[in-house]
Each structure stands twice: as structure tokens, then as C-alpha cells.
Amino acid sequence: MRTVQELATGVRNGTLDPVRLVEDALERAGEIADLNAVVHLDVDGARTAAAAHDRTGALAGVPVLVKELIEVEGLPYRCGSAAMNEVGRQDAEIVRRLRAAGAIVIGLSHTHEFAYGCTGTSNRVGPCRNPHDPSRMTGGSSSGSAAAVAAGVVPLAIGTDTAGSVRIPAALCGVVGFKPSYGTLPADRVFPLSQSLDHVGVLTRTAADATYALDALAGPAAATLTTAPRLGVVSNPEYLEFTPEVGVAWSAAVEKLDLVEVRLPDWSTSFSTAANLQGPEAVANHRGRVQDRYQPDVRQRLLEASQVRPADYERARVDAARITAELDEVLRQVDAVVTPTVLTTAPPIGAADVEVRKQLLTNTRLANLTRHAAVSLPIPADGLPVGLQVIAATNEQAAAVACWIEAQR
């Protein structure tokens, strides 16, 4: 398959036709409709944009899907919820940047309702299904973005990440999920889950594609390593409580890397601090909305979040700064830290929610709390996909390390 850069270069030099690229993407979306990865196809809009394309831009002619949490002018704005039935009044800034770079938005991708879940199973149209095994979940909340890239619908999709929502589905679907540092990609007109933790990110087939896309949408992200990076491997036991399938792939992947053990900030404190920041902000964002048509798990999550005391929220804000400083210190000693992205391969769609959430969220939440760049890379595995997470001080460092690891295969 061509890279994002190759597609855009081909459109710019006239060897590739944006109309053909769009038609291929629309056709493929129809072929995998049963996965629920794409919740709305803007067939007429995409065809019109392709026919009128001026063949310019870093993303010239590249078909893109946008998570349905992100407002796109004229398209349904439902956030995966039966309780919401709006139409986008204007493009979110990230959509404007996509169009300015020459990308063609072909439609909207599935989200766990209001992004308040890490499984991708709760949505007005039903669960998103994993392209590697439709009986299994994609992870979430950027479920459709990961599934659509994995299934070959588009080479680039936009997602959001509050506790791992780009990286978790990337890991379970076998693609790359890049959550850049906080504020790199704008979150205006993106339905908020937790403003302190929300990030906008990209999903692609390769780290090189993700780096190229970030460079096009936010400015320079690429950096080249002239020597092998100094990598820290997490030693906190909570990050390594993986299933045997993940353990085999993880062990084989890290054997090829030059690693030094590092200890990340205390897992329990970091996890509870992030939860105590997220909860009250989520409750505030849904205050005044009629919630009786929300998915049961999202209603339950909001109920639990409402129990977080104001004092706990204020303490979490203080603790977040301290934990960030602790991770900064770790990252001064190494070029990046690597961990498994999630502790399991894709669970069955009907798996028990509480245990699955723990396995999916354990390793991703820290980088949202500290707002550092983090990337999930697929690593060789027998059977279902497995992800390796890179956490770095800057987008450039995360991109360079991710591309370097990718090149070692």
C-alpha cells in the first residue's frame, strides 16, 4: 500500500487521481459496513471535493475519516449517542486544517458514546467490530478510526484521546496511534470529555505516516535519529501484568532494543489522579443534558464520576503537576520510555466490562495526565494484534523513536 506521503505526492504530480482515491475509499467502506467503523459516509460531498481538487497541499487528495465526536459542517453531529441529533454548524479547526492541507473528508468514524469508554462497544448503531475478528472489540473510544485504517478504508483518520482512546484501538486493531502532546492539534468544536486530559490524535498504518500527517497538520514533527536511541523500559509491575499472548510479542520486541530499566511515577496515584480530574469535568460537560437515552455504561460512568468530591478534584490538579515533573525527570535520562500499550489482545465484544477496562486503560492513562507525546506501534504477534507504546518528552522525540523502532523490524 502507498504511504500517505506517496498518495499526496502522486496527486500533486498528476500520477494519481483524487477522484479515484475517493471512489476506492467509498467502495471499501461499503465492503466493511458490517464492522460499524464508518457511521456516516458523505458520498456527495467527498465526490464534489475530489472533482474540484486543485492538487495542492501536503495531504493532497488523501481520503480521511473524522471521529464523529468532532464537528464537521453539514454532517451529523451525534457523538455516537441516541440522545443527540444535531448537524455540524461549522468545521472544527482540525477539520479546517485537514481541508487546507488538501485532504478529503469522506465521512465520520464510530466512537464509544461521547468518548466515555475504552471498548468501542457502546454507540447508537451498536459496537464497532475488529477487522481481525469481528466477534472482538476494537477498543475505544476512537474505535472506528482505528478499524477503518486497519481495514484499508482510509490511510489516515482523526481520533481523540483522553485516557488512551487513540492508542488503545490502535493496539487492538494493529495500526499506529499517535497522541501528540497536549494542544498540538486543536480541540475546539470537539465534544469534550475532560478538558484537562483531552488530546486530538491521528491513526495511520505506519509511524512514518503518522509523523507526516502531524507535520502537515501542526508543523514540524519529524526528527531523525543518527544513533540508536537510549530507551527506558518500564519496570513498574502494574504495566507488565499482561496476558500470555501480549507477553510473547512484547518480549520478542524488546529483545531487539537497547534498554535500561526505569520506574514511572507510582501507578496507583497516577491512575486515581487522572480519574479524579476526568470525572468532575465529564459531569460538568453533560450537566443539563437529558441522559435517559445514554448507553447504560456511560450513564453508570457519569454516576460514579459525580461522587468525586471537589477537594479530590483540587488535589488531583496539584498531584498532576507533581507527577508530570516526575515523568519529566525520567525522560531527561532516556530518549523515550516503552511499555506495552495494553495488557491484552482484543477481548470478545461481550466480555465483562470492569476487567476489560482495567486491562485496556492501565498503561495509557499516564501520558494524558502528564500531557506528554505517546505513540502506539503494532509489533509482530501470532494471532491478534499487540501494541508497543512509546512515551517521550516531545512530539519530535516520540516520532523519531517510533520511526526508528518501526525500521528495526
From TrEMBL:
<dbReference type="InterPro" id="IPR023631">
    <property type="entry name" value="Amidase_dom"/>
</dbReference>
<dbReference type="Pfam" id="PF01425">
    <property type="entry name" value="Amidase"/>
</dbReference>
<dbReference type="InterPro" id="IPR020556">
    <property type="entry name" value="Amidase_CS"/>
</dbReference>
<dbReference type="GO" id="GO:0003824">
    <property type="term" value="F:catalytic activity"/>
</dbReference>
<protein>
    <submittedName>
        <fullName>Amidase</fullName>
    </submittedName>
</protein>
<dbReference type="InterPro" id="IPR000120">
    <property type="entry name" value="Amidase"/>
</dbReference>
<feature type="domain" description="Amidase">
    <location>
        <begin position="21"/>
        <end position="395"/>
    </location>
</feature>
<dbReference type="InterPro" id="IPR036928">
    <property type="entry name" value="AS_sf"/>
</dbReference>
